[in-house]
Amino acid sequence: MSRPLLTRTLAGALLSLTAVACTAPQVGSPCPIPTNADAKTRTEAVQKCFGLIAGNSNDFRLKKDVDILFVIDNSPSMSPKQKALAENIPKFIEKIDSFGVNYHVGIVTTDVGTTVSDGATWGAGSEPSCDSFTGDDGRLQDMTCDKRNTVSPEAANACATLCPDNRFKPTDGSKYISKVDGKTNVPADLKLDPMTGKMVDYGPTNAFKCMALVGDAGCGVEGQLEAVKRAITNSANTGFIRDNSVLAVIFITDEDDCSVKASRRSELNPGYRNCNAAQPDSYDCYKVDYRCMARSLTCNEPMTTAGGKTGCKERADSFLEPVKTYYDELLKVRKADKLIVSGIWTLPNIDVAKGGTVGIVGGPLTSDLRRDPACVNSTNSAVVGQPQFRMSQLANMFGTDTEGLPNAPQMNVCDTAKYPAALDAIAKAVEKKLVPCLPITLKTVNGQPICLVGDVDSTTPDANPEKYFPLCTSGCCDAWASTSTPSLSDKGIQAACAGETTEACYCAIKSKDASVCKAGTPEGGVNGGVVTGVWRKNNANPPAGKVVNFRCVGF
User: Fold this and answer.
1) Where are the alpha helices (DSSP H) in 318-359?
2) What string of H, E and C letters represents the secondary structure of 232-284?
3) Residues 309-332: what's their mean pLDDT?
4) Beta strand segments in 83-170, E
5) DSSP state letters, 420-466
6) Are the beta carbons of 552 and 506 closer than 8 angstroms?
């Protein structure tokens, strides 16, 4: 008689099913792994601990994949926001990496063109950057910022500072940054982390800095939502979104969405005329920059005059594609439990429920009307955000989680100093979607799981840990089993595990919630799986460059 030994690296995991003897392994204490042992000796020690015997073996791979799509506004005024994003991305990538996931990170711009057909132009008076039918068409952007020759001096300076070496981009023909089973597709940049004394590969964050500075020479008619639709349907992006991955869509923009219905693209003609306040408004009463809002919203006050506008809501005859169209498109790709939508955009939004006011300035000609910024950076008045309605409308469609927190977190694009906190909130939202399951029926001895758990280098996620974690207390593990959101962000887990005294401990336990590790899913296996977790003292982050490796016996 034999039972399988199941090996799993949290979230990015390789599960190896190998025959083992029924002799009871050590439980509740680390295996006797020799100090400074080589890989062969360590493997033999682990095998001895579990009483491994020769026999048939089978490999089963459980993919815990995260595909992250950044939708970055590349219109004029975006350089300081892009720079702030790129400066703060290392901690975000480090956080995602600490989950042990196989990740893809892709970037698209908000430029989707404005003309009515392929090859058509608007002619005299048009903005060259907008005189295109498809723009960037949702294609993933792998160009390093130093190759973008039409950017402003500010954008060029940001590139010179953050991307001094243009080698950092995908080298395998992909248009996205990836890390799969510890292997990245960008040049390595190994440096010593002074906090941990460990070597960390900064290649992926270097690549993001070079690629995410998409410049500020794109079309000022932003189609953020249309860009996402094209990104997930464009055949040029094949391979980016994987089967069964968690999909995270992250916007960074300082304008509202202006995804125009295909049948009404003629209304983006940049020609304009003056209309007086008594006339019914026509699309050409306004310059295009103000037109996107004036022709998509209706307020208590007319849009043909300057002044505050209150009670604004979507026009019944809006020339923009309904936001729900894009909400539905996203749900075609992923169910809500594997989808994150988040945004760093203008806040507060145009809030109908609170009678929000939109400021319109200019005049007396209708063609001179323009929006007053809705937010301004506290230390740099050049960093502003224009009023937005549709971005928040999309986020609000995703509702809240079991703790009453938004499923689509929104952060203010003007608060560049808070980008680290914003990215951390997004990372935590991603973590909640990564249900840490082992698709087995767990074998226990005296009620304790038969597992070996510990940190390994993220570049070798299937290696044997140097040090093994003890089992957490029953109260802590019961909290992992009792929640529908088993992650370190869960308030119940935080409360129940706060008293753990060891530097790190683990849980492997059958979930009490039938929706977690559900049978019939890749996470749950045939009979329903086991939820796993690692608690570190004071809920600390894993050491830099480390992920958790699980080895548990099941049958």
Assistant:
1) 323-333
2) HHCHHHCCCCCCCCEEEEEEECCCCCCCECHHHHHHHCCCCCCCCCCCCCCHH
3) 94
4) 102-109
5) HHHHHHHHHHHHHH---EE-S-B-EETTEE-EEEEEEETTSTTSPPS
6) no
Our measurement of the distance from residue 447's CA atom to the centroid of its chain's CA atoms, rounded to an integer in Å, reads 38
Question: Each residue of 134-151: pLDDT tens digit?
Answer: 999 999 999 999 999 888
Q: Taking a C-beta distance cutoff of 8 angstroms, is the pair 98, 548 a contact? A: no
Triad 248, 254, 260: Cα angle to 5°:
80
What band does 205 get if pLDDT is binned at 50, 70 and 90? very high
Vertex 462: Cα angle to 456 and 463 (nearest 5): 55
* 99: nearest Cα among 394, 364, 432, 515: 432
Instruction: For residues 259 and 325, give the distance between their C-alpha atoms in angstroms, rounded to a whole number.
Output: 11
The tens digit of pLDDT for each residue in 28-84 reads: 344 555 656 666 776 666 555 554 433 333 323 334 789 999 999 999 999 999 999
- Tell me how many degrees the CA angle 131-142-544 measures, rounded to the nearest 5: 140
* C-alpha triplet 265, 266, 272: angle, nearest 5°: 120
Give the number of C-alpha atoms closer than 13 A to the C-alpha of residue 453, restricted to the C-beta side. 24
Q: What is the distance between the alpha carbons of residues 186 and 239, in angstroms, rounded to a whole number?
A: 16
Q: Helix (H, G, I), strand (E, B), or coil: what is residue 543?
A: coil
Name residue 375's beta-bridge partners: 385
Instruction: Give the Cα separation of 65 and 434 in Å (integer).
Output: 9
Structure token pair of residue 103: 């990740």
